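A favour between colleagues. Tell me how you read the following sequence-structure pair.

===
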Amino acid sequence: MIRKLLVNLIAKKNGDDYSKEYRELNNRYKSDSIELFQNVQLTNLIKQANLNSKYYQKIFSETGVINNNSINLSNFNKIPILTKNIIRENIEEIYSKDYTTRKWYYNSSGGSTGEPLRLIQDTVYSKWGNAMARFYYNNFLNIDEPYVKKIILWGAERDLAQGERDLKIKFNDWMNNTIFLNSFLITESDMARYINIINSYRPVLLRGYAGSLYEISKYIEKNDLSIHSPKIIISAAETLHKNMREKIESVFGRKVYDYYGSREIGHLAGECKKGYYHTLFWNYFEVLDKDNNPVQEGEEGRIIVTNFFNYSMPLIRYEIGDMAIRGPDKCPCGKLLPTLIRITGRITDHFKRKDGSIIHGEYFTHLFYLKDWVQSFQIIQENFERIKILIVKKSEINPIEKSDIENKIKLVMGNNCIIKWDIVDQIPKTKTGKYLFTKSEIR
């Protein structure tokens, strides 16, 4: 109770209180007026961007989104898709000229597929994002996330201070009932220590990178250890593959809820009890085919997102770089928000052939499942005819299984494909601590 009062008082004092935004989201959801809410916010965003961003002024005029000072939302789908390259080439004109009137800060994309993208965000955006996340936890998972005991396994160097966390950060962690465990690089002794912390702290919520949760689950199983079973386990930041989900759920004895977000746009979608991902309505969410047409239920496409609340640097119809399979608009769980069946990973998690066709990354990861000699692996497409495989061995490579893997890679990539194996001590992670099973270097 004392902690909750302190959290609320300090948030109000610092101007970070988002209770008003949270109530607005709940009221809109319960009154089934989500579409009206989104239309109002999209209209406000377009007005703001038109007044303050040279880039959008030109785009809105050319596409007829604004004509004679009147906004026509029916032309919204004519706005060109915003890519990272377009942002880099036009960044000064995309920034709102009034961003200094707000409490703003820099953020950046992960940069795992190239040069990180530098972004401006502000406290209005942060408040709505925090409110949206809390809405998901309360309405889909039945927990009040800011106040429950939680352990967070996270790995980005820019998110977790090296060495000892300073007193201010430790105090904030205490107030928020949170223990952070750095998963950027986990040794076996770290895993043993983390397991002891989980068992002694007994969190209601355990959240972490999919890969970190998976590695700890394997360690627990391998050493036949007992582990506290939190009420909720959240996987985030990385693609949660089927075998990873099964291992984590088996070891912890709980369903894993996968959560999808990004640095550029924030909270995007969260999984429900029926296994669908519900898109969170503080954004306008599109799944488009190669011709920029909406895909149908069961079809895969590129994820395009518009956030309503970052007036300092509007991202309108932004291609985030991920792909997903569209689900039903009405979910069997009864929740109102539209769904995705699955987020299939980053575009660069998939491999491309010369003819432009895409081979899903999971095709390659499945080749390494249940191979007793494989500790960990990464498959890299260096070009159209060259694949590099990094392997951390458990034991000597099985030559029959190795040959079978090569044959199956050539089956989809072509008989001329050159496959190189590198035995390494450790698979490198990205700068944000993520572990990529597959990576294409084709731009």
